[in-house]
Amino acid sequence: MADSAIPTVDLSPFFTDGDEDGKKKAKEVIRQACSDYGFFQVVNHGVPLALMNRAMDLSKTFFAFPDEEKLKCAPPASDAPVPGGYNKQPERSPDKNEYVLMFPPGSSFNVFPTNPPEFQKILEEMFTYFTNTAQLMEIILSDCLGLSPNFLKEYNEDRSWDLMAAMHYFAATDTENTGVSEHEDLNLISFVFQDEIGGLEVQKDGQWIPVPPIQDTLIVNVSDVIQVLSNNRFKSATHRVVRTKGRNRHSFAFFYNLQGDKWVEPLAQFTTEIGEPPKYRGFVYKDYLALRKRNLTHPPSKREDFINITHYSIST
Length: 316
Ligand SMILES: O=C(O)CCC(=O)C(=O)O
Ligand SMILES: [Fe+2]
Known about the structure:
Elements (H helix, E strand, L loop, with lengths): L7 E3 L9 H17 L2 E5 L5 H15 L3 H4 L14 E4 L8 E6 L16 H26 L6 H5 L7 E7 L8 E6 L5 E6 L5 E5 L2 E4 L7 E5 L1 H6 L9 E4 L6 E8 L6 E2 L18 E2 H13 L19
Parallel strand pairs: 1-2
Antiparallel strand pairs: 2-10, 3-4, 4-5, 5-12, 6-11, 7-10, 7-12, 8-9, 8-11, 13-14
Helix pairs in contact: 1-4, 2-4
Bound molecules: 2-oxoglutaric acid and fe (ii) ion (FE2).
Protein name: Fe2OG dioxygenase domain-containing protein
InterPro entries: DIOX_N, IPNS-like_FE2OG_OXY, IPNS-like_sf, Iron_ascorbate_oxido_reductase, Oxoglu/Fe-dep_dioxygenase_dom
Organism: Ilex paraguariensis (yerba mate)
């Protein structure tokens, strides 16, 4: 079955001392999944399940409020890299969703709903746990790439651009069902926690594979920066969200990110040191972010003209 093809990895060996064999086996599955798909799921990932369920319930409560209530935490004018707070996709966008976006707890860019009252605290807790799991994941991915386990951590220690979105997708209509159009995430590593409705799909060999909702799992997605650093060893997965008729969908997406001034280019370990040509020219991360934002503010008329990471590809 196509949908069972997304591997699920148990991360518990990484939370207990001594299970070297368990760690090795998990890393082997992750390494393979990252080069085949850029997508896998994890269980026993360290994020408390009661917290995840509570966050999902509160998010459903928030998004069921009238616009007037939700707009109380609309983004104020600020120099944030992306607007924190409540956002709804513009009418002209094919993506029919709304979301609350946050930076790390304590960030001056954050604007939180005050209703339901517990929502802010629970969002902040989710963010902290997601960050811890992402820090574990960056050690695992560094290792899987044959780099020193601290490589990615040392490459970017600045956590101030990390993001989390609580998302709500409207039910599909008779004529359209796009939740999020096909894309690759631009950051380092993404996590998705989806509700029981499903709709997330990942592309492999030109086919769309549904990622079925499995309770208590997190979906892990390798993103563009890892693909560039690894000179395509690991894939940044193309994915999308398809909406369901008659059912609203909720999810959380966490984006473990780079600080905007970071320089991104294929690492020497995957190019000069092994005599392979780089597949990308280098760029400043925030310049790429600005181009991707332009896709949304000034959408090109043809899908193929949307900027993605191939903008920096070196043709061979
Ligand atoms: O809601 C989801 O399942 C995924 C959302 C997503 O891919 C994104 O926001 O980049
Ligand atoms: Fe995404």
